[in-house]
Amino acid sequence: MQVIIPIASGKGGVGKTVFTANLGIALASLGKTVILVDLDLGSSNLHTCLGVKNRHAGIGSFIYKKAESLESLLVDTGIPRLFLIPGDALLPGTANLPYFRKLKIMKELEQLTADFVLLDLGAGSSYNVVDFFLMSSSGLIVTSPETTAILSSYSFLKTAVFRLLFRTFPSKSEERNFISEFMTERLEGSGNDFSDLLAGMEDFSQEAAEKCRRQLGKLYPRIVLNMGASNQDLLLGSKLRSITTRNVGIKMEYIGFLKREEGISRSIIERRPFYQNHPDSQFGRAMTLIAKKLISTPIPEAPALFEENEDIRQLGEAF
Ligand SMILES: Nc1ncnc2c1ncn2[C@@H]1O[C@H](COP(=O)(O)OP(=O)(O)O)[C@@H](O)[C@H]1O
Ligand SMILES: [Mg+2]
Where does the record place the CobQ/CobB/MinD/ParA nucleotide binding domain (predicted)? Predict the structure, then answer.
């Protein structure tokens, strides 16, 4: 069965796409069949990082119903066992994904035949991004050492956990209303954290609180720190992990530390992913280690969630 690995970041420019492309090559080099999916709609550039020409139909075609299936969009990258489903390079402006299309994409992703399906998600915490992230119990968060990037990663994780709990209960349920109200008050500055939410839930319904705890126990995101400038930066990933565990109540794994590698920007210009020529560089070896960890750790089933069509309302409000 294929393993879907969503790759997210709170902030853009942290190297998420470079990471996805190079991780794909590392996994393929270890004998795995890999499909990379560019879900950063509106600013797709995974093809560039892979050195694939921008002349193929992509997810944009699927969204506009020009392509029947995601599988029909598969592009051979020229690297053995590595395939790409491009973004919307030929059809720009699909950043707003209609809800039913999103569901359809998720169903199709689950049907793809490969050992690994890596999703390069858009930056930020919009529900479009977070819902793809929650397709797995163990999505990856890429961050750089910058404080703003670390803080955005933390916000992303909080939003993901809130969305997880929200989608644990059906639409219009009392539990869901309770969670919404809690979050609204919290956003207004009450300063409460998730343990307060669970305590409040407990007063409200023991059973619901228990269900939330079980769901939180199933989430196990993994952090990658990219563009580390010094060994000191290594500690930042651990800090993010411990703060999230303390305040948000989920366990996380710190799966990789990649240093800044000057050859990377040149490799993009030359359209030849860095890992391909330099698997034995420091960056290459760190990437191989991440790939091996992903191969050797079975990923538990994602938490069961209710479908959520709140995006429709959000879209409606935008007009
Ligand atoms: N480990 C690294 N060392 C040096 N430069 C990097 C590294 N990772 C990414 N970059 C550079 O950072 C820039 C942004 O990377 P990109 O993958 O497009 O970010 P994102 O997808 O997060 O927006 C690129 O120009 C790339 O060359
Ligand atoms: Mg990107």
Answer: 7-273
Q: Please tell me the number of the ligand nearest to residue 44's CA.
A: 2
Record the tokens describing residue 180, joined without a space: 């919404």
Nearest ligand 1 atom, CA 120:
21
Report the pLDDT value the prediction gives residue 319, as an integer from 0 to 100: 35
Q: What's the confidence (pLDDT) of residue 186?
A: 65
Please tell me the distance from the alpha carbon of residue 149 to that of residue 220, in angstroms, as a whole number.
Answer: 20
**Whether residue 237 has pLDDT greater than 60:** yes
Q: What is the C-alpha separation between 225 and 231, in angstroms, rounded?
A: 11
Q: How remote is the CA of residue 52 from the centroid of ligand 2, in Å?
A: 15
Please list every protein residue whose CB sits less than 6 Å from any atom of ligand 1.
9, 12-18, 123, 226-227, 258, 260-261, 264-265, 268, 283
Q: Atom of ligand 1 at shortest distance to CA of 265?
A: 27
Is the model's pLDDT at 248 over the cut of 60? yes
In 3-state terms, what secondary structure has residue 253? Answer: strand
Residue 311 has pLDDT above 80, yes or no: no
